[in-house]
Write a structure and sequence with these properties.
The complex is a heterodimer of chains A (257) and B (193).
Chain A (H helix, E strand, L loop, with lengths): L4 H10 L3 E4 L5 H10 L4 E7 L5 E7 L2 E7 L2 E2 H9 L4 E7 L10 E2 H30 L9 H10 L5 E5 L5 E6 L6 H21 L8 E5 L2 E8 L2 E7 L5 H15 L4
Antiparallel strand pairs in A: 1-6, 2-3, 2-6, 3-4, 4-5, 4-7, 8-9, 8-12, 10-11, 11-12
Helix pairs in contact in A: 3-4, 4-7, 5-7
Chain B lengths: L4 H9 L10 E2 L4 E2 L5 H14 L5 H24 L2 H6 L8 H14 L3 E9 L3 E9 L12 H15 L10 E7 L8 E7 L1
Antiparallel strand pairs in B: 1-2, 3-4, 4-6, 5-6
Helix pairs in contact in B: 1-5, 2-3, 3-6, 5-6
Classes of the chains: A alpha+beta (257), B alpha+beta (193).
């Protein structure tokens, strides 16, 4: 029989549940792991260093309710996905008092990531407007190499490659040394060309993202200026968080090409 | 569709660069000199070493000019050649920008420099990156990409200045980075003169 949240506090004291640190596993991975094993219950989260609290209730593979600070539903989930420091505590069998999401875990994560992207885009645009105002005084643009090194710092990213529209490999970083980088550049350029032709035939906008899945590995491509950047990640489960964290850096990389 | 570099490189690399009885490569109608790059580098370094300090800039400008004259005239021959029309033009959808992409792919196919366009503002500015150019092995001090400077300037003149032969000296190319100076690649920026 499910127990309610208040009761779970007692339960937590009696039963340790599953505890861990968000620096070791992120919320996306945790949710995917618990839902894939058909668990039901609540994940209590506490951020560090702020000490803010969040709760995620789910039943089987479905997210029922999410609360983070004063945000709830998808907004709350988007906020929680941006936490990378803190602790979590999973308590099985704890039911939610009300429903504010009602989506599968995978679907909810994707929706929350889209929401995060929109929020990040607004922030970037505001920053760019503010930068333009102060541009008269300083021109402190970072080099593409510095930005690419920052991209490599994001957990889960194995390699980054920037390719011209003609397939010229402009720059690469990370463990791309084990692949034939010129062949990769040519293949990416041919793929992007095909996709842009399709977009043109369909009379839709230029392509914004391209994901190619190979088992668990994924190549994610995005335009950067007149070129295309591709990141290679061996673990598709981190794609949501990678997509969110790379957005601002891709914008910055676009200034170099 | 835009110009696909690998397609151009593969097609042009098949062309025999053997001179005919007039000393020309028949496919391009341009003069061919099959000289080892060590000879070219040695010539460049000796002529630079022979110049007194106050005239080194002049000698440098002369070397760039030599590459420019060659690049402007033979470059025109190349981008109007039958083989360029056959291989590159069917892929051109972005006008001069694609012609330039094709020109740098040709440049790579012939082993002069593994180079390509990084940034291009039409008729204003072009940034080129080169990873493998023979002048990087010249052994001299400072930036030595004179051939790439001259040719990049010539290509941009051919693409965006007045039609051949009236568009000479409209743009200028500066080298900002070089493998020979310890950078990971050579960088060449073409701007209006």
């Amino acid at each position: 029989m499910p127990v309610h949240y208040e009761e779970s506090i007692d339960l937590m004291n009696k039963d340790g549940g599953l505890k861990g640190n968000l620096s070791l596993t992120n919320i996306t991975d945790l949710l995917q792991f618990l839902s894939s094993s058909a668990k039901s219950g609540v994940i209590r989260l506490q951020s560090h260093p702020g000490g803010e609290e969040g709760k995620i209730h789910f039943v089987g593979g479905e997210l029922v309710s999410v609360v983070s600070k004063n945000l709830s539903g998808l907004e709350g989930l988007a906020d929680l996905l941006s936490w990378d420091q803190g602790t979590f505590h999973f308590l099985p069998g704890v039911a939610a008092q009300k429903t504010n999401i009602g989506l599968s875990v995978q679907h909810a994560i994707m929706e929350a990531v889209v929401l995060l992207d929109k929020q990040a885009s607004t922030t970037v645009n505001e920053t760019l407007r503010s930068d333009e105002r102060s541009f008269d005084m300083q021109e402190a643009e970072r080099s593409s190499t510095e930005v690419m090194n920052d991209l490599l710092e994001i957990p889960g990213i194995d390699a980054v490659v920037v390719v011209g529209r003609d397939g010229f490999v402009i720059e690469s970083a990370g463990s791309s040394a084990r692949v034939n980088i010129d062949e990769l550049g040519a293949s990416l350029a041919h793929s992007i060309n095909g996709i842009e032709e399709m977009g043109s035939e369909l009379n839709v906008n230029r392509f914004q993202d391209m994901f190619i899945e190979y088992g668990r590995a994924v190549i994610m491509c995005r335009p950067v200026g007149d070129a295309v950047a591709a990141i290679i990640t061996p673990d598709a489960s981190k794609l949501g968080i990678i997509r969110h964290k790379t957005r601002k850096l891709f914008e910055e990389l676009g200034h170099s090409f | 569709m835009t110009v696909m570099r690998d397609t151009v490189v593969k097609s042009l690399a098949r062309v025999t660069v053997q001179a005919d009885e007039n000393g020309l490569i028949p496919e391009y109608e341009v003069l061919v000199n099959l000289l080892p790059v060590a000879l070219l580098n040695t010539f460049m370094e000796r002529i630079m070493a022979a110049a007194p300090p106050e005239r080194k800039a002049e000698v440098e400008a002369g070397l760039v000019r030599a590459a420019y004259e060659c690049g402007y005239h033979t470059g025109c021959g190349i981008i109007t050649s039958d083989i360029f029309n056959e291989v590159v033009l069917p892929m051109v959808t972005e006008g001069e920008k694609d012609i330039l992409r094709g020109a740098y792919a040709a440049f790579t196919a012939w082993g002069w420099a593994k180079s390509g366009i990084v940034q291009l503002k039409e008729a204003e500015k072009m940034v080129i990156r080169a990873f493998d150019y023979y002048e990087a092995d010249s052994g001299g001090d400072g930036l030595r990409g004179f051939m790439l400077r001259g040719l990049s300037q010539a290509f941009f003149d051919l693409a965006y200045a007045d039609p051949y032969p009236d568009g000479m000296d409209t743009f200028v190319c500066h080298q900002t980075k070089g493998i020979e100076a310890g950078d990971p690649y050579g960088e060449f920026i073409v701007v209006k003169k």
